[in-house]
Amino acid sequence: MELKITTLEGKEAGSVQLSDAIFGLEPRQDIIQRCVIWQLAKRQAGTHKAKGRAEVWRTGKKMYKQKGTGGARHGSQRVPQFRGGGRAFGPVVRSHAIDLPKKVRALALKHALSAKAKAGSLIVVDKAELEAAKTKTLVGQLAGLGLQSALVIDGAEVNAGFATAARNIPNVDVLPIQGINVYDILRRQKLVLTKAAVDALEARFK
Hints:
Blueprint (H helix, E strand, L loop, with lengths): L1 E5 L5 E6 L2 H4 L5 H14 L59 H17 L3 E4 L9 H10 L5 E4 L6 H7 L5 E4 L6 H6 L2 E5 H10 L2
Parallel strand pairs: 1-3, 3-6, 4-5, 4-6
Antiparallel strand pairs: 1-2
Helix pairs in contact: 2-3, 4-5
């Protein structure tokens, strides 16, 4: 697959040959969904907690006599039926993470990249650099490229000026190649890869 390379100013800067093994697959939604569920489950804190009847401080003395009251037979006041008692089957601190094989995660990334390429939502730029970290300048450049919601993936290191200018723009994310992931690719309309990011991806999946 051949794709034109553009600059941030909107000028042509040659073309690049993309690997069909990475960008030319027929997207499978089931594999992509498995990876997204894995990502969202893994990032849950799992720190929610409710006190059970064993953790509530209330007297354990029998509330009233067993017979003769005309009411139900109760003992401890810590039971969930009473206000201030422990909660039955409440949430406990735990990990929500699930397992997903590395091969499936790698395949999901390929399918996410292929889905963007197939939809025409993949843009390759020569480099993502700004001399002066001016948000107004970058907003104008992104508008010229027709980008309102985009994920920008750079090489091993993100240009400091570009990252500073982009961090205040809504719906625009900037990540190094190490941080590329399926969820962030899907949550933005366009995927912008630098030439360094394309080379790093092909070296990664070689």
